[in-house]
């Protein structure tokens, strides 16, 4: 098992045992900043050597799929009899992307010596924004009461999006050669920093598991079923877009993940009547551990199968 996953399991176990272990808030913030910048810088450096025009159809396809999966998740949650505002809020989380899960899947592929397109981090940025907008529209429709200014500020100026976009632009400007002097901080220690980050995420996840007792089987079924369904869409899309097996695995994993940084903050501002515990219980308590322990391996083998049968 990948050591990153073991660090996550360690964090969950320590939390469930009511250990006093906890990373200082400042350290956790620093780790998240370095991770987000690392992902952006690496993707931007690779993007600088890519023909941008050839990426536009792929970018538009990924954005469309992110919106489609948000609507699909919303319809499924309505079938499960969730309140409409709660269904819209949860759906927005699942149309977006988990940066932590993205970091783990690229580490998993590197560990298994599977190559992938380095510019995949571009799609992390693209998937953060549309799902939030679709979620707000599903919850409230388009009206004068929608706080679009506050929403725009939260989406475009939120920490995760700013760091990812900033990293992408800097990486794109300096290119692979310019990135080399920064490797000692942002590239070489990536896996160690990710391990500490996932330790803290495990501790946070353990706090959400108790909510499963209150919200029951529906959250568990959705939190497990939606990633599997979304990964299938991602694998098929990656195949038709011509990605490598590794790149398609990354795309499938991104679609199978659920945001726990940008979307919760945006939903708290624009849809305050939605219950945030439902979203966090599903994304952090069910989907994140499933993806890290089982999901990524499943999506990799699913992608291999799709390429083998040649859809």
Description:
The structure is a single chain. This protein has 311 residues and is an all-alpha fold. It has one domain: Na+/H+ antiporter like fold (Up-down Bundle), CATH 1.20.1530.20. Helices cover 80% and strands 0% of the residues. It is built from 14 helices and no strands. It has helices spanning 3-16, 25-47, 52-79, 84-95, 99-111, 121-140, 148-157, 159-179, 183-186, 190-208, 211-240, 245-256, 262-270, 276-309. Helix 3 runs antiparallel to helix 11 (211-240), helix 4 packs antiparallel against helix 6 (121-140) and helix 6 runs parallel beside helix 13. It starts with a helix and ends with a helix. The relative contact order is 0.19. The mean pLDDT is 88.
Key traits:
311 residues; mainly alpha; Na+/H+ antiporter like fold
């Amino acid at each position: 098992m990948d050591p990153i996953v073991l660090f996550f399991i360690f964090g969950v176990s320590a939390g469930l045992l009511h250990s006093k272990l906890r990373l200082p808030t400042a350290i956790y913030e620093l780790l998240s900043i370095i991770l987000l910048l690392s992902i952006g810088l690496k993707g931007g450096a690779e993007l600088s050597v890519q023909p941008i025009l050839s990426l536009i159809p792929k970018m538009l396809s990924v954005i469309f799929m992110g919106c489609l999966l948000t609507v699909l998740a919303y319809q499924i949650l309505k079938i499960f009899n969730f309140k409409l505002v709660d269904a819209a809020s949860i759906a927005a989380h699942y149309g977006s992307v988990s940066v932590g899960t993205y970091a783990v899947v690229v580490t998993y592929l590197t560990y298994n010596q599977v190559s992938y397109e380095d510019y995949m981090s571009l799609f992390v940025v693209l998937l953060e924004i549309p799902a939030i907008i679709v979620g707000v529209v599903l919850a409230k429709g388009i009206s004068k009461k929608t706080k679009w200014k506050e929403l725009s500020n939260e989406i475009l100026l939120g920490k995760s999006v700013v760091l990812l976009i900033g990293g992408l632009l800097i990486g794109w400007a300096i290119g692979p050669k310019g990135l080399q002097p920064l490797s000692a901080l942002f590239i070489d220690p990536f896996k160690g920093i990710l391990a500490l980050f996932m330790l803290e995420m495990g501790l946070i996840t353990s706090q959400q598991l108790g909510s499963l007792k209150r919200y029951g089987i529906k959250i568990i079924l959705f939190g497990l079923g939606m990633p599997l369904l979304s990964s299938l869409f991602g694998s098929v899309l990656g195949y038709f877009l011509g990605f490598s097996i590794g790149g398609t695995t990354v795309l499938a994993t991104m679609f199978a993940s659920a945001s726990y940084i940008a979307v919760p903050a945006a939903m708290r501002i624009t849809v305050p009547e939605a219950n945030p515990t439902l979203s966090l219980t599903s994304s952090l308590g069910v989907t994140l551990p499933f993806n890290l322990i089982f999901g990524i391996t499943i999506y990799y083998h699913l992608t291999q199968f799709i390429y083998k049968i040649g859809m």
